[in-house]
Structures are given as structure tokens and as C-alpha cells.
Amino acid sequence: MTQPTLGVILNGATGRMGYRQHLVRSVLAIREQGGVELPDGRRVQLDPILVGRNETKLKELAQRHGLERWTTDLDNALSDDTATVYFDAQITSAREKAVRAAIAAGKHIYSEKPVAESVADALALGRLADDAGVVHGVVHDKLFLPGLLKLRRLIDGGFFGRILSVRGEFGYWVFEGDWQTAQRPSWNYRSEDGGGIVLDMFCHWNYVLENLFGRVEAVTARAVTHIPSRVDEQGLEYPATADDAAYGIFELENGIIAQINSSWAVRVNRDELVEFQVDGTEGSAVAGLRKCRVQHRSATPKPVWNPDLPATEQFRDQWAEVPDNAEFDNGFKAQWEVFVRDVVAGRPHAYDFYAAARGIQLAEAGLASSAEGRRIEMTPLG
């Protein structure tokens, strides 16, 4: 059997996410395993073309990993007939123009989120891609996390009974950049560059809620900037114009209420950087990046409130660990493999630009709710 190869243009390859998760842990990991396995037993190998703005960084990165193809000229990469897929991990403000160019060049498009800076622009990209007959997708990595895959298994098995509520906690302390280097790039904290935790994380929360629990029908949110100034990569202080924390209440179909706190100004006192507690009539679960713990109705203790006596129960010890029962791969790599299979099969990717538009819609609604101090109802986009 022939072993096909897909040329993949990786724009933003020198950035934090573009390099760590998409190049090293996805594309290069797929190459090392011999490609993406197809249903008929064939394997599709990936041949990356690295694209970025800094020639020195690109050259060093390519040499480090034994890659020959790299360029600072996106148009040149898009004109390469051996490149079938375009992937974008640039800053948000630069993404739409590049994605439009890739669609015009007839490339299948896979992109970090948000795919555009507005719902209208994301929908327009989806229509353009459909008209061009190319497969389009956006990163939905959290659905592929082991913890959420276990949670999905519990939902499918009817463990919860009727689900009542979801409570999420996400975040960690991102250093200001003065006495310790910041873990995130400075553009994340400038709204003029597409930064802000609402635009970033509400896109994630939309697909997590939509795919696990139900469509978001209304949102009430408060977005704030707790840290007013930070220090950039050059050691210069700058005003933080984007929100660094958001507190949201999401009303889902079927009456489920979700509350999710997102913050880059919080110190972690939980087992993982993100955790979701799901409570239902028959049982509850707490799912993180990798682990998932459960407490069934039959094993639920009966605590009594008495502030005059110390607690004698270790509540965390009363939960049981959900076993892996499967091999879990890197979530970014797993979705890359799904996307590649969809490209080869010529079928739509489940998490397409329209799914991306719904995520941006939730972010826009969250920002509007915060600015106007009111509950915002969501209009279905389809």
C-alpha cells in the first residue's frame, strides 16, 4: 500500500503553543510514530514547513529538529503545491488575514482558537472555506484530556442521573515579569493585540460545555483586570489593558447551571490547574487534566453542620478514583490525528470554524455581560 504524505505549513512555529504543543508534541511525535494510521491500515506521514517572523529563531529551531523546510515568507509557503494543510498558531490579531490567504490557496485549514476576532469574521471564514471545498477545523484540545475523556465515559454510562450543575476552576499565578519572568507572552494582557482571558478561555468553555453537557443559552459574567501593569519580554513596563480574570455563570439547555472561574491571578490550591465538579441526582465527579474522582449516591456521607466542633471526616478521602482503562495520548496530538484523517477522507471536521464562531460568540456575550452588568441570552448560530 502507498504511504501518502501531507505537507503541513506551521505558521507561528516559534511561539509557545506553536512550538511546544503543535510542532514537538503533535507533528514531530506523529512523524516519529510513522504517521497517522488510517482505517485501512495505511499511514499518512507529515512533512512540516515552519513559518515565522524571526529568521534566526526559525533556522535554529529547524536545525534542532533536523527539519529542512522553513521560511519567513508565508506567501512562498502557501504557493508550495506539496503543502496540503495550513495551521495557524499566530497571535489572534494576525490570524484572519493569514487564514483567508490559505483558503484562497486551496489549503485545508487547522487553527488555534479563536480563529477570528469576531463572530461575523469567524462565520465568514467558515463560508469561505466551504465554498473553497477545504476541510476546516479549530483546536478543541480539552475534549481530548484524559480527565475529560473519563468524564465523558461517566456521562455516557448514565452515572450522574440527571445532571444539576457544573463548577469549574481554572488558572494559576502568571508572574508580572518584574522579579520573575512571566509564563505567558505579554500580548495576552493587551486587548489591542487580541489578549484577554475571556476571549481565550470562554472559547474553550463553550466547546467543553456544549459537547459534554449542552448548549449555552445565557451567560452572566464579570471580567476584571486584577494586575494593572506588567513587564514585557524586553523588560519594559506596560499597561495591562486586557482582562486577566473572569467569573461566569452559564445557563445550559436542560436546566443545567455551570459556574466557571478563570484567572491568571490566582494561586493554585487544588489538585490540577483546571478542575470541573459535576453534580447529579445519582452521583458526582471531579475531573481535571488527567484524573477523575467520583462519589456515588450510595456512598455519599451525611455531614451535619456544627461550627462548634472540628470536622472529623476527611471529605476528599471519600471519593473513588476512576481507572484509566485506556491509553491516553497528548490531547493536541490526538486532535491532529483526527483532523488528518478527516482531510484524507475529505469529510468535515467536527470542530470546525462554525464551532469556533460559537466560542467567540460566548466570549463576546461574556464581555458584554460584564460591561453592561446584565444577563445575556445566546442566539443559536447552528
Give me some keywords for this one:
18 strands, 382 residues, 9 helices, seven-stranded mixed β-sheet
Can you count the beta strands? 18
Number of helices: 9
Low-pLDDT regions: none
Gyration radius (Cα, Å) is 22 Å
Main sheet: which strands, in order across?
A: 17-16-15-14-8-13-12-9-18
Structural class: alpha/beta
Summarize the structure.
By secondary structure, the chain is of the alpha/beta class.
Molecular structure report:
The chain is an alpha/beta fold and 382 residues long. It has 9 helices and 18 strands. It has helices spanning 16-32, 55-64, 74-78, 92-104, 119-132, 146-156, 197-212, 331-345, 353-372, and strands at residues 5-11, 36-37, 43-51, 70-71, 83-88, 108-111, 136-138, 163-171, 216-224, 229-231, 237-239, 245-252, 257-263, 274-280, 283-287, 292-296, 320-321, 376-377. Strands 17-16-15-14-8-13-12-9-18 form a 9-stranded mixed beta sheet. Strands 1, 2, 3, 4, 5, 6 and 7 form a 7-stranded mixed beta sheet that branches. A hairpin with a 4-residue loop joins strand 15 and strand 16 (292-296). Helix 1 packs across helix 8, helix 4 runs parallel beside helix 5 and helix 7 (197-212) packs across helix 9 (353-372). The longest helix has 20 residues, at 353-372. It is globular and about 70 Å long. The relative contact order is 0.16.
